[in-house]
Amino acid sequence: MVVKSLKMTTLADNLVLRAGLHGQWGLSYLLEIVDGRGDDRKVVFDTGNDREPLLHNIKKLEVTLGDVDAVVLSHGHGDHTVATVEVVEAAGGCPVYAHPHCFLPRYYEDRHGKRTRGGVPEGQNVEDIEAAGGELVISDEAMEVVPGLWTTGQVPRVTGFEEVSPPTDGGRRIVVVDGEEREDKILCDQALWTDVEGVGPWLITGCAHSGPVNTALHVMELGGFTGLHGLIGGTHLVGRDDAYIDKTIEELRRLGLRFLSPCHCTGFKAMARLYDAFPDSFAVNYCGRVFEAGKEPRRRLV
pTM for the whole thing? Predict the structure, then answer.
């Protein structure tokens, strides 16, 4: 089912180019959709890294969460999951979609063996969400969140060059699965996608730890698409070398993108390279920015 319209408001991002809002190393979107039956739908995708700045932005933007239909978590990292309970409470209770690995215990171990806790912050786990009125919907398969808006589920990693970026200081990421410690390949990474009537398919990513190209290819397979109209969200190109970024750009060119708005974990170098590669489709994202599918963003650079 296609949707009739798609509007995205950035509630949290690294950048702030609008007075009165607060930035953070985190991401959160409000998606407003008119589905194929003409019904209004609202979905919050991720809930940021810093609770108070996010809640401040929601209030400042006069965003209403009381009619939110669902929350979707892109993966189990703290910069995307800090205020899930607060959003669910504001919605009066709603489904929360996540991958089975999203809420697993996670640690970072530095090269000296010192561990720090990672993953979903304290107070935002399954029992906390359920106590707030949330209904956890846990699956590694693609799921329809509201009519016409889907999760990707777990993303197959098929490109051969996209891999989870290693820690820069020689440490390691650990996830505990069924009581066993494993290297954390962030398998819980997922995204959202939809097909907008008269416009085309859109992909909305959290961090794209699976790789933006892998994620796009998966969406094209799920939806039977030959390309994508729009891609918005994190790409996790921060810290990548030039060859890796160039290969990503080469593969993204094949998608036929008419709209590209990378943000959050993309990094300045990759952002600049992507703008240079896609000057006619690139739009800078930032807290408070609103994009509507099929409408040209006002002043693409800012």
Answer: 0.97
- pLDDT tens-digit map of 116-152: 999 999 999 999 999 999 999 999 999 999 999 999 9
Q: What pLDDT digit, counting tens, does each position of 153-169 carry? A: 999 999 999 999 878 77
Q: Which phi and psi angles does 209 have, rounded to 5°? A: -60, -25
Helix, strand, coil share (%) of the chain residues, nearest 5? 20, 25, 50
Phi, psi of 269 (to 5 degrees): -60, -50
Distance CA 91, CA 211 (A): 31
Return the domain boundaries, the chain.
5-292
Burial 130-166 (b: 16+ CB within 10 A, else e): eebebeeeeebebbebbbbbbbbbbbebebeebebee
Q: CATH number for the 5-292 domain, one of 3.40.190.10, 3.60.15.10, 3.30.465.10, 3.30.300.20?
A: 3.60.15.10
Is the pLDDT at 299 greater than 60? The verdict is no
Q: Please give the span between the terminal C-alpha atoms of the chain, in angstroms, as a whole number.
A: 33
